[in-house]
Write a structure and sequence with these properties.
The structure holds 2 protein chains of 2 kinds.
Chain A: E1 2-5, E2 10-13, E3 29-30, E4 35-41, E5 44-49, E6 54-59, E7 65-67, E8 72-77
Antiparallel strand pairs in A: 1-8, 2-4, 2-7, 3-6, 4-5, 6-8
Chain B: E1 5-8, H1 12-24, E2 28-33, H2 41-45, E3 48-51, H3 64-73, E4 78-80, H4 90-98, E5 102-103, H5 108-115, H6 117-126, H7 142-152, E6 156-160, E7 170-172, H8 175-193, E8 198-202, E9 208-217, E10 221-233, E11 236-242, H9 249-265, E12 269-279, E13 284-291, H10 298-305, H11 309-317, E14 334-341, E15 343-344, E16 350-351, E17 359-360, E18 367-371, E19 386-394, H12 397-410, E20 412-413, H13 420-428, H14 430-434, H15 442-448
Parallel strand pairs in B: 1-2, 1-4, 2-3, 4-5
Antiparallel strand pairs in B: 6-7, 6-8, 9-10, 9-12, 10-11, 11-14, 12-13, 14-19, 15-16, 17-20, 18-19
Helix pairs in contact in B: 4-5, 7-8, 12-13
The chains are: A mainly beta, B alpha+beta.
Organism (chain A): Marivibrio halodurans
Pathway (chain A): Lipid metabolism; fatty acid biosynthesis
Domain Lipoyl-binding (chain A): 1-77
Chain lengths: 78, 455
Amino acid sequence: MAEVKSPIPGTFYRRPSPEEPPFKSEGDSVAVGDVVGLVEVMKSFIEVKSEVAGTIKSFTVENEQPVTAGAVVAELDD
Amino acid sequence: MAIRKLFVANRGEIAVRVVKAAQALGIRAVQAYSEADADMLAVRLAEESVCVGPPQAAKSYLDKEGLVRAAKEAGCDAVHPGYGFLAENADFAAMVEAAGLVFVGPSAATIRKMGDKAAARAAAIAAGVPVVPGSDGRVASVDAAVEAAETVGYPVMIKAAAGGGGRGIRVAGDEAELRKLAPQAQQEAQAAFGDGGLYLERAIVEARHIEVQILGDGTRAVHCYERECSLQRRRQKVWEEAPAACLTTDRREELCASAVALAESVGYRGAGTLEYLYDERTGEFFFIEMNTRIQVEHPVSEMITGIDLVAWMIRIAGGEALSMAQTDIAIDGHAIEVRINAEDPANGFMPFPGVVGALDVPEGPGLRFDGMIYEGYQIPPFYDSLLGKLIVHAGDRAAAIEAMAAALDRFSVEGLKTTIPLHKALARDEAVRAGAFHTQFLEPWLEAHPLTAQQ
């Protein structure tokens, strides 16, 4: 099973902005390079991209929760 | 009422600065901290500390009720807001006062008035302080625009009276250009907003950012001269100096006197900064806004005047009147501050919230470091990237730049990417050394002088 990891510590967001839908939901297919979420670090927003293709099985971090560098934010089915 | 116990409602380097200033005055410091900040330097230095919530600033450093409650429970008699967070929040200042505590800063009414751009502009005009010239309301025709531009002065910015933001702004250098551009602007405004009315404002091309530091006790105010902060990236100041080398003595006196007039006209209490745009070609300065708090770059003013601004904020809040006259305050030499941020300038200024490794901060005469780091400290990712400020003070500007370059070479922090390479490159740059820059200088300079990982 593949995983999407945060490249940097900070606060994880699943939406581009509070008014918009999530980048990805469970069951959505993901291509290499697709944006899965954002991490806010020191007032900057860094995109969290998938390095593999698959289907999102589950998110392992809730919206607006702190993440560490390398933390798994989503699990993918191949 | 002299303050005995001060609650510090901020974090990072400014919290360290405030804690030390309080202690030097014989005041006990109670440091607020979030769950992510339990290890921060200010917590280690303060006599007491109180956790005020989770890492997210909205639930800790921005939680007005929680902070006031924590200050009361700790037995404090005053609250220092630092900068950022709630420092310019009039409601917070009012809540602190309503709880029977002293807010270290101006009154809530002053914060509200000077925080409102239109109200601040009106206060400036009433105090005789120049503001960016604009048309008196909307202009409805091209001829009216030409007539207004005669008073406003070229080059003029043409804006839609009904619009907002920077949309559709045009700049006309003379009447012929205005006659050509105004009809286009009218048509566009009509199409976009259903109102073809225009507004004209003087375009200050290649403006410098110059700001005046003032201290007021509610009755009288003095200035501690000006700072030049034109080197900015994404509207964030990068490198700051005092005094502004581009000003003549006469112009400096005029500028600083205007700031004192405005501060006294609003009965200003505490430390404050009036920001101006300066047009070097015409020698004109224009008030743009006031910051009703201590600023990041306050140390350069302290270095050239010998006045401890943070100590004075606390003393004034405790009821003291200013003891110094304006004639007691003189400029001694030149000071420069650079902001050392945990960012990688060779990688698009990517934030770098790492662990501080071996740390060697240069010390010596004319050197000062206002920082928040120590060896082994894990920098939290939740707040801004400012690690500290390196400040140098020397006899003149050229000597200050040399001192800055030498201090940067001796400054070593392992384990992190920082903006030190940017400052080293700026200290070597001919235009920077000549003082030939303005607010639009740094971003194109960064494009033309990409920083590499080797620097």
